[in-house]
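sorry for the late reply, my laptop died twice this morning and i had to redo everyting from scratch. anyway the thing you sent over, i finally got around to it. pasting the sequence first so we're on the same page, its 194 residues, then the predicted structure underneath. double check i copied it right bc i was rushing
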Amino acid sequence: MIEVNGLKSRRRILSGSAAALSTTGILALLDTSARAAGAPANVGNAAQDAQLLNAALSLEYEGIAAYQIGAESKLLTPNVLKAAITFQSHHKQHRDDLIAAIKRLGGAPAAKKSEPAYAKELDTASLKDQAGVLRLALKLERGATNAYLGLIPSLNQSDLYVLAARTAADESFHAAILGHLLGEAIPQKAPMFG
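ok and here's the structure:
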């Protein structure tokens, strides 16, 4: 996984390839971008928003691949497999929504990597049981939730806030279900994300 560390300017972060970033990298990008931006501007910078949405699109590609790898692993029980396939379908809808928004902004959607590339980045060869698959999915869902929450104040065009908020809600729902499947205790303190 590629992490974004030590970058101080929003412009330097955005000039890199968003498609190459992992969940950790996306979180760092959005955190730095939000701090640099201060309050969101109402006048849009479509190119910048397209770059940010491409970073989110990279998360969706990663999630789709992770669920595909998990589904094909033969490590999941039928009920868990059904949930994984359902969550993957949600990520495919997120992907499609992001691609449409990026194109509307005049941007070019980021390219997805090959499944073996995602498998290597996610170290899926180390998955030995259903719990391992679920822990990986939970890590990705929590990271995606935080990334989308960080995306909202970073966007310049307010009509994109709903897209990011709606997707963050889906990701947090996935995380809640996965946590339950893993038998995790309900967190005693809020907020759980952000």
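Residues 46-72 form the longest helix (27 residues).
thats about all i looked at so far, will dig more tmrw
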